[in-house]
Amino acid sequence: MARLVKCPYCESQLPKDEAVEYKKRYYHESCFNTWRQEAEHRKELIEYILELYKLEAPTGMMLKQIKEFQEDFKYKLKGIELALRYFYETLGNPVQEGSGIGIVPYVYEDAKKHYIMKMNVKESLKDIEKDVEQKVVVVQSPQFTYQKKVKQIDISSL
Predict the structure, then answer these.
(1) Would strands 20-22 and 13-15 be described as parallel, antiparallel, or unpaired?
(2) Does pLDDT of 3 surpass 60?
(3) Domains in the chain: how many in total?
(4) Sheet strands (E) in the chain
């Protein structure tokens, strides 16, 4: 009989031989994949914030805001990143120093709708691309010859 170990992610027991070992800890396979994905999303969010605000490391206020958004609003890390991208890149708003990422709760739902609509458009285009033949049309740009048209003035009529 295999020894039981505790998954640090979901805190339930599982047999050691069915577990995925990572740094001397044992996870369910699904828990491990979820944990790795969250870690990757957190890294991407922080990298984007650093790039956006031109910082070396995120401020304590920003980390606190991320934690609040996750706990209070149940926002996903990738959703926070996409909301920031939507607000600053898509809508073109300027970055304000010292403001942190407090805009996220106000634009999260709009960003969510925007990216869902964007995904739906991409999905519908996949179907269209399969049905339509691609035709390559080469168009030569017209050659312009510039001639100065100078109206001649009849001096005798003046």
Answers:
(1) unpaired
(2) yes
(3) 1
(4) 4-6, 13-15, 20-22, 25-27
Nearest-5° Cα angle at 23, 19 to 24: 60
Q: What are the b/e assignments for 51-77, b being 16+ CB within 10 Å?
A: eebeeeebeeebeebbeebbeeeebbb
Residue 54: domain span: 4-127
Judge whether 49 lies within some domain.
Answer: yes
158 in a structural domain: no
pLDDT in tens, 59-117: 999 999 999 999 999 999 999 999 999 999 999 999 998 889 999 999 999 999 999 99
Least Cα distance to 84 among 66, 51, 61, 107 occurs for 107
pTM of the model: 0.75
For residue 154, being part of any structural domain is answered with no
